[in-house]
Amino acid sequence: MAATLTGLRAGARLTGERSARDAAETFAELLDGTFGRTGHQRYRNGGGPDSALAFFDATGCHDVAPPEQLLSLRSSLARPGGGIAPGASWREDGVSWTPSTSLLGLGLARAGEREAASEILQWLAAHRTEAGSLPEKVLFDGRPAEVAPLALDGGERAADAR
User: Fold this and answer.
1) What is the pLDDT of residues 74-112, one digit of tens each?
2) 152 in any annotated domain
């Protein structure tokens, strides 16, 4: 929903056409009347908080959810290792997901919540692999897990090996 709203609003700005603005406004009203009714939870009718809420502020849609709701994700989705889970109904395995955690950091930064965003950025920096990349997950005890790196590190090593 965030990507669609962002695209519609960008299209309206680029074209300046009234029909494009109307489409963006209609979609925003639909979003507010469905997901907004329950506080933008994971599903239209519930499901608890979801890290995807940060996508709105991260992409510049600052009028969808108040900053307090974005800030609350840090505690409602918290994991023992310091990051967050993708959603409230996510498996209770203690795993922090770096894509969700970094998205929250970006959303908070774009919403003007610099202190909270900085805390997340520091956590991400502290949980990089030995090669300096971010793993997809961080276990409850701080060890990296699953796909690592999520960035270019593997390609750089391959080039160095030649």
Assistant:
1) 999 999 989 999 999 999 999 999 999 999 999 999 999
2) yes
CA dist., res. 83 & res. 86, Å (int): 10
Q: Which domain holds residue 84?
A: 71-161
Report in angstroms the alpha-carbon separations of 25 from 1, 6, 41, 76.
13, 11, 21, 30
17 alpha-carbon distance from chain centroid: 30
Residue 39 lies in a domain: no
pLDDT of residue 57: 94
pTM of the full structure: 0.84
Cβ neighbourhood burial of 42 (10 Å; 0-12, 13-18, 19+): buried
* Residue 129: predicted pLDDT: 86
Distances 74 to 18, 58, 103, 119 between C-alpha atoms, Å: 38, 15, 11, 10
Overall domain count for the chain:
1
Classify each residue of 94-112 as buried b or exposed e, where b means 16 or more C-beta atoms within 10 Å of its C-beta: ebbbbebbbbbbbbbbbbe
The label of the residue with tokens 């003007």 reads 112
